[in-house]
């Protein structure tokens, strides 16, 4: 399994997501994984300008699709791919993003894209009440839910957002800490 240890290698792999889809629509979302990550990071930067870790987790949250994870497992695969470079918080948020979707589907009238609705069943479906309680008690539950809301909003075909080059210096800043 791929795990990133330096920013250049990460940037190269991430840039290669241009034109790569999690699955063809309607099973997958209509934007490619590069655009989806960039949109998600940009949304989180607007909503949580002081939380660079959350923004970066949004940027990389679906990288598991690109490093060999099958759909139900892509959160965990992605988390382990980014952990050596981005650290535990970003990795843990990436790892929680599918659980956050299952949580939101269980606790509110949560509107999902067609692709997200179809994949939810493969990912374990809505959480049981016990799972809801356990998830909500986690230290990063609020951030994971914020990421997942941005995830759902980051599927707009043709939306212009800052490119990967904008994020590279921020990644360097973050991983130096
Ligand atoms: Fe995902
Ligand atoms: Fe996503």
Give an overview in words.
With 177 residues, this protein is mainly alpha-helical. It has one domain: Hypothetical protein af1432 (Orthogonal Bundle). Helix content is 62%, strand content 0%. The chain is built from 9 helices and no strands. The protein has helices spanning 7-15, 33-47, 52-60, 74-86, 88-107, 114-122, 129-136, 141-153, 164-176. α3 packs across α5 (88-107). The two termini are 26 Å apart. The mean pLDDT is 93. The protein binds fe (ii) ion (2 copies). One fe (ii) ion binds next to loops. One fe (ii) ion is lined by residues 36, 61-62, 151.
Index terms:
177 residues, mainly alpha, Hypothetical protein af1432, 62% helix, globular, binds fe (ii) ion
CATH homology-level superfamily: Hypothetical protein af1432
Main sheet? none
Poorly predicted regions are none
The tally of beta strands, per DSSP, is 0
Hetero groups in this structure are: fe (ii) ion
**Helicity range of the residues?**
55-70%
What is the CATH topology?
Answer: Hypothetical protein af1432
CA-based gyration radius: 15 Å
The CATH architecture classification is Orthogonal Bundle
Q: What's the overall geometry?
A: globular
**Helix and strand sequence:** HHHHHHHHH
Number of individual domains: 1
CATH class: Mainly Alpha
Number of helices: 9
Terminal residue distance: 26 Å
The secondary-structure class comes to: mainly alpha
Average pLDDT, rounded to a whole number, is: 93
β-strand percent reads under 5%
């Amino acid at each position: 399994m791929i795990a990133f240890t330096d920013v250049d290698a990460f940037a190269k792999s991430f840039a290669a997501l241009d034109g790569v889809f999690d699955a063809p629509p309607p099973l997958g979302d209509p934007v490619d994984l590069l655009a989806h990550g960039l949109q998600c990071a940009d949304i989180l930067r607007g909503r949580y300008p002081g939380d660079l870790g959350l923004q970066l987790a949004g940027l990389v949250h679906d990288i598991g699709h690109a490093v060999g994870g099958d759909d139900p497992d892509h959160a965990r695969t992605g988390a382990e791919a980014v952990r050596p470079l981005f650290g535990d918080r970003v990795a843990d948020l990436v790892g929680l993003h599918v659980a956050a979707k299952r949580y939101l589907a269980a606790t509110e009238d949560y509107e999902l894209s067609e692709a997200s609705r179809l994949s939810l069943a493969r990912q374990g479906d809505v959480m049981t009440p016990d799972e809801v309680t356990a998830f909500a008690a986690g230290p990063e539950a609020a951030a994971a839910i914020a990421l997942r809301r941005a995830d759902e909003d980051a599927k707009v075909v043709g939306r212009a957002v800052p490119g990967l080059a904008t994020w590279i210096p921020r990644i360097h800043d973050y991983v130096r800490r």
